[in-house]
Amino acid sequence: MPRHAVASGALARRDRARHAVRLVRDAVCRATIHTAGLTARDLLAVAVSGGPDSMVLLDALLAARERGGPALHVLHFDHAWHDGSAAVAQKVHAACRASGMAVTSERAARPTPNPGESREMAARRLRHDFLRRAGTQLGVARVATGHQADDQVETILMNLARGGGPGALQGMRVDDGWTLRPLLTVWREQIEAYAHRQRLLPHRDPANESSDFRRNRVRHELIPLLDSIYPGARKALLRAGALATPAAEPMVSSAQGVRMPLAPDRRAVPAGPLRDVLNAALRTDELFTPQLGESHWRALVRALAENTAGRWIQLPGGRWAYVRDRAIALYGSRVADPPWPAPVELSVPAEVDLAVGRLQLRYSALAKAACDSPAFEVLAVPPSGARLGVRTPRAGDQVTSSVDGRRHDLLRLLRRRRVPAALRGGTPVVTLNDQPVCVPGVVVDADHRPPPRADTILAVSVVWAPLPRADSPGGFVTESPLRVRTLDSREKCGSGARVPLI
Q1: Buried b (16+ CB within 10 A) or exposed e, 242-270
Q2: Which of 431, 427, 454 lies closest to 371, judged by CA?
Q3: pTM, two decimal places
């Protein structure tokens, strides 16, 4: 065989592997951020067995955090089916420690089936009970599992074989409000290519090859036979399941805790069905009389469905809607948060009222519990004599990424992490000796994270300025501009003080 043929074959395999990594990460990001609507302020539990599907899911979710995805907490359930299960649990713990993630695990006694229940069903019941208990205790937004496209096809076939009716075609949902399945559109061979490319070395459970389990027989016998009779049957079944899933009614989320552009006349649309809550909100505005056209509704529905990071939609009557994280705020004009004129010096503990919200810094001994909390960022304790401050982003600012260890331009990083243009200029940046170390809710410089066994950490959090409801008494009453807080460069926050900057 010619030498160039070998080289071209290896190159093709590398291209396929790179394509698999991009495809899986895009699918996970789309399901987590756009479909489920999770952001950096949410906590997502990840069920990790140690197998290829869950290890790939965990790696892709870590990459999604760089694109504004949620904080992660790993859940591992040891079924104790075989003698090596404890070693698998240790491997999962080691992988989590290497990535700086918290993990909760539980080891079960060998599952005892209930009457009429198979061993496989008993193991599934125990695992689901653990995920529900642990997720509820942690207060997570969702529990992510590694179910993928081949699992979906198997589920659809098994539902049909049981006589499940028209609803059997729906199979599993990507997001059912509690369980999130980000890999449900990704095939097993793409997951294997991802694992190989990223050198994940997952555990291979021999039970997955046993013909004692019905699902394994569907996987290894029925589906290959069906594919040989009807080539492309797997993809057709997956497509049929997607078409059978009813479209969800567009819903508006609460704007509580969501940062929106500053304006004296801004108002939040209450949570609920889009047409009902938006029409009710606009009826309270005496200046707004025209009806929304179908083009307006289409733009709003699309912005909600895509869980946009921030989009202006012009409405009739001189009003604007700003859609962000499935919340909607109404404005009299397009606005953008301006940069502050000068940095503000800080000492710890500190609580400062900024135009965009309230910034808090405090020392804490809860490093282990805080590491994966989306509520605040964790920094190493600054060295003696270092100058802490807060300002807005500047051209040339850089931070070190915890994913690749490289320096990145901060303004570009803010764009990647879903901080829209309308908010970017007024984003608070915590600095050490005037160098960025933290953007609350967005990024922490990897060089300033605390060591694993730190006794004390610096916790940084921000509570965004709340919005009045659009249907509150008085409707769109414009406040005095003096009530919108702005920075005064002469103000300085001392230890333990809370200084309103007006």
Answers
A1: eeeeeeeebebbebeebbbbbbebbbbbb
A2: 454
A3: 0.70
Determine the pLDDT at residue 243. 84
Please check the confidence at residue 502 and state whether its pLDDT lies above 50. no
Taking only the tens place, the pLDDT of each residue in 406-417 is: 899 999 999 988
- Report the C-alpha gap between 432 and 444 in whole angstroms: 12
- Say how far apart CA 288 and CA 306 lie, in whole Å: 27
CA Rg value for the chain: 26
Instruction: List 346's β-bridge partners, or say none.
Output: 388
Contacts of 71 (CB under 8 A, 6+ apart): 40, 42, 43, 44, 65, 372, 373, 374
**What was the pLDDT predicted at 418?**
87
Q: Cβ distance 130 to 109 under 8 Å?
A: no
- CA atoms 101, 107, 113, 114: torsion sign: negative
Tell me the β-bridge partners of 47.
75
Determine the average pLDDT of the residues in 139-143. 91
CA 166 to mean position of chain CA atoms: 32
pLDDT digits (tens, 9 = 90+) for 18-36: 899 999 999 999 999 888 8
Nearest alpha-carbon partner for 340 in 490, 502, 498, 488:
488
Distances (CA, A) of 343 to 340, 383, 389, 409, 436: 7, 20, 6, 20, 12
What span, in angstroms and rounded, lies between the C-alpha atoms of 28 and 183? 6
- The DSSP letter of residue 116 is T
Strand 377-379 to strand 311-315: parallel, antiparallel, or no bridges (unpaired)? unpaired
pLDDT tens, 370-414? 444 556 788 888 988 899 999 999 999 999 987 777 899 999 999
What is the C-alpha separation between 48 and 145, in angstroms, rounded? 8
**E strand spans, 49-182:** 71-78, 102-107, 142-144, 179-180
- Here the tokens at position 278 are 């938006």
Amino acid present at 53: D
Collapse the DSSP code of 163 into the 3-class scheme (helix H, G, I; strand E, B; otherwise coil) and give the result. coil
> Which uninterrupted H or E stretch holds 16?
helix 3-29
Kind plus residue range of the DSSP H or E element containing 43:
strand 43-47
Place of tokens 């997951």: 191
221-225 long-range contacts (CB < 8 A, ≥24 apart) are 222/157, 223/150, 223/153, 223/154, 223/157
